[in-house]
Write the structure tokens for this entry.
Amino acid sequence: MRKRIAFIMIMAFVWLTTGCGALNSAESEKVYAGAPTIVLNGYKYFASDMVILQELPAGYSYDGELTDAEKEYAHIIGSKYYIQEDEGTETLNDFYVYQECGTRISDDEVDNTKRQWAYARWSKEENSTDVLSPLDGETVIVIDY
């Protein structure tokens, strides 16, 4: 009888502590799982064309530093960005970020084991005319601890 009571008490304890963990799942942090994205002035920019340069192209000049919120979904080290001298930040089609990145080894391949600091081009999402929030239509994975 004592063994049965001890077993019931242990099972109740396990059930109660598991229940506490389940309560925390509602407060789980959401992790962005989409393509690296910079959100500047409400528009999404991607580095999909893999333009990685050692020197800034002519016609581009320093415009400032990206905030942590603007580059939150980019997962990059580096924040200084450069825009075309005749464009304002409201009408940007592309810009360069001086960032740590891989080394381009072909037109469609980057070796991420060979890290370097270079200018990477970020381009506005094609056919993007509406201001978007960073997670519109993107996949979000919820990790439960």
About this structure: The chain has a mean pLDDT of 78. The chain has one helix and nine strands. Residues 30-142 form one domain. The radius of gyration is 23 Å.
